[in-house]
Amino acid sequence: MEFNASGCFIALLAFTNNLIFGCVVKSIGVLLPTLRDQFTAQTWIIGIMVAAMGLMSDVSGLIAVVLEGRFGCRPVLIVSSVVASVGLILVGLASSTIHIALALAVIVGPSFGIIVVLSKVLLGRHFSEHYALACGIGHAGKAVALLAFAPMTQLFLDTYGWRGASLLIGGISMHQIASASVVQVKNPQYQAVTGRGDENLHSDNTTHTNSPKAFYMRIVRAIDLGILLEFNFWIVLMCNFGVTTAFNSWLLYFVPHLQVKGFSPTVAASLCSAAAVGYFLGTIIWGPFIDKGLIKCSTAMIISNLMLSLSFVVDPWMNDVLSYVFSTFVCGMFASAVYTLVDVLTKDVLGIERLVSAFGWMRTFFFARLISGFVPGWIYEKRGSYDLAFIVIGLLPTASLIPLVIGLLRKEI
């Protein structure tokens, strides 16, 4: 039985990590106006700090590859959880924007990047028959964060001020320390057993391990550079690129887009709740069908990406609240579905033994964040409307399916 005590703790770890990371991002968004006024800084400076945290979170995925091979999953998870919590607490003690930027970009971001990669790896190693469902449970944490932590952070802010709110968020993040501590990690079954002949060979070669070439080869083996040359890796990378670009653009520009169309800020913010509900349902919509073999992961991926694109492309022709409730619900549901399916497809096409390097390299390609932040804003500056921007961004999830379709036609997956 996969959902035994060990499996439940691993699923809880993935859920908690997504919950806390979503809490941090959403909470900083709520605190942004207060931080801007407190430090008399421009809005874009606070925005850059948040972007730097996300960027460092992505780049640190490769660090997880090296640390996991050297120390193992559980110790790295526990230490990274402690470091992330300390970084968030330091935000509440900051006396300038530089201090906040250093805490978020140098401490919090990399720690969360390592945690996210390793929690996905643990899910892939433990679950087989119910892997899609387990991935969905993990991603559901972000949906809960979208629903709960915006009003909760506002309550903290009104009651204790921005410093007290930051300290409370840091305290909440400590829950992931407990989640990491109770995880039972088994040694990967693909690890090779070293025999006497291998030991003798190793002892004969110890004099060469300090050479520059040997050092370089150890690094190459650790980060698995060869995965970048495999077509199957680019299949999952492009699927991840499409959904990340689209959904991040939605998170950044949906509320400003509605305000340009004439909706009040209150109504625009309230419509985001529909996406959060859809996001929660999307994490589990495909899991039971895939686990039971009723539908292939690739088929579910194609359907979900097409529906996600559709929710963006029809946006310019919607002008009432009811239609936006439906479209944002669809956007959230199929965005979370694609995120979940990317994890499942990665294990299917690359194998369990390469999950660490696969997830690490996928997070390293951070261009999706840059495009999602730049392109819609640039189009708005040129045309005075977000309509074309939503169409262009909405087509990316569909375009990202091209490698997957090629792989299916070649029968490589």
TrEMBL record:
GO cellular component: membrane
Membrane topology: Multi-pass membrane protein
A Pfam family annotated for this UniProt entry: MFS_1
Record keywords: Membrane, Transmembrane, Transmembrane helix
Signal peptide start-end: none
Protein transport keyword on record: no
SUPFAM superfamilies assigned: MFS general substrate transporter (SSF103473)
Top-level division of the source organism's lineage: Eukaryota
Keyword NAD among record annotations: no
Transmembrane segments: 7-32, 44-67, 76-94, 100-119, 131-150, 162-183, 231-255, 267-287, 299-318, 324-346, 358-380, 386-409
Annotated compartments: Membrane
Principal localisation: membrane
Limits of the Major facilitator superfamily (MFS) profile domain: 10-412
An MF annotation (GO) of this entry: monocarboxylic acid transmembrane transporter activity
Protein name as annotated: Major facilitator superfamily (MFS) profile domain-containing protein
Native organism: Patiria miniata (Bat star)
UniProt lineage: Eukaryota, Metazoa, Echinodermata, Eleutherozoa, Asterozoa
